[in-house]
Specification:
Elements: E1 2-5, E2 11-14, E3 22-24, E4 31-33, H1 37-41, H2 43-46, H3 57-64, H4 78-103, H5 111-119, E5 145-146, E6 155-160, E7 165-170, E8 187-188, E9 194-195, E10 201-210, H6 222-231, H7 234-244, E11 252-258, E12 261-273, E13 281-284, H8 299-306, E14 313-314, H9 317-326, H10 331-343, E15 346-350, E16 356-361, E17 368-372
Parallel strand pairs: 6-13
Antiparallel strand pairs: 1-2, 3-4, 5-14, 6-9, 7-8, 7-10, 10-12, 11-12, 15-16, 16-17
Helix pairs in contact: 6-7, 8-10
Length: 375
Amino acid sequence: MIEFKAECGHTVRAKDEDAGGVVRCSYCGKTANVPDPQGDELDFLFSDVHSPDEENPRQRRNKKKKVSAKRKPGDINPFAIVLRMCYAALLLIIVLVVGKKFVMPLFEEGGFEQIITNTSPKKPEPKPTVRTPRNPIVKPAARVGLISRNKFANLYTTSTPPGAAIFFIQSSRAPATGRIFETDGVQRLDGAGKQRDLSDGSYAVEVVFPWNHSNLTGFPEYKDFRRALQDADASQRNELIHRFFIPDEATDFFVNEIDGQFYLVRQYRDVVIRNRRSRGVRALFLPRIKTEEKNGFSIEALVNNYIPTDENYSFDKNHVRSELNFYDVSDYDQKFVMKALTQIGMIPYRTADDKLRLFKIDIDDGSFAAKVLHD
């Protein structure tokens, strides 16, 4: 039901289906325009700016509008339908845009992580560091022979075990026999066992341990060896020392007694320095670990218990294994020989032909050699 005021001021009631039409006022008998509530809501879309004196556009339209017959129930208002369709189309467009931009990405692979990543604040990228160009760093080639360059010297001398006293002198000034440590002009090597800046030539080198040195007293049966040494004469002492210790490249190995103190002396004659290089001196004061084999000694017990564990030598291991195969070294013994060569650079070994050979690695170029020793 629609209620409105006629021109006479009387309240007129009209049915909803009469909206937008005309009815007759029951009081004054004149016709009156029935307002359309939906049309009133859209008047602002069609109204122009006008002054208060101007006639309302709707009134102008109503004056021109002819009195029509009452709208029958069920009549369709086409303007209302078009308006509702516009509203529906606008709502559909909004739903599609929002769904495409925000909803659909959530169902794509990694959608949630991507959204979180894109919405999280980004850390400022660090500025690139401008560096002054330098000469390219050239890595040194792999070392062979003695690994540490700090140990290199034109007269490199060491002992196993460490701790021996080392003396040297030019061969031309050395006595033909006996100790050289009291000879005029003899020099003692520094604690590391190396001497640089020597002129080319031939030298005699002496490596000495006192018989009660702590690095020797832990050897098996060493106490019995010392007791036998104390009671023996000079020739017997030299025989005892050769039987107790394994051989190396020493030209002489003997016992020297001074004021009741016994010294175990290895001498190396004619050590040649050429072009500021020598093949070095490596003195072995290591015990023979007895085995059931004739004139044999246990390479396994010797390597596992009495040589240093640091790796000091680098060489072509495949080549050395092929050389050990050539000398019929068993597969079991090869691993101990290889270990000794890596750690001290040399080891004596009795081969299948009953010859005592010294396997060694050159300190300068890592080459392998096998030298027959006199036992």
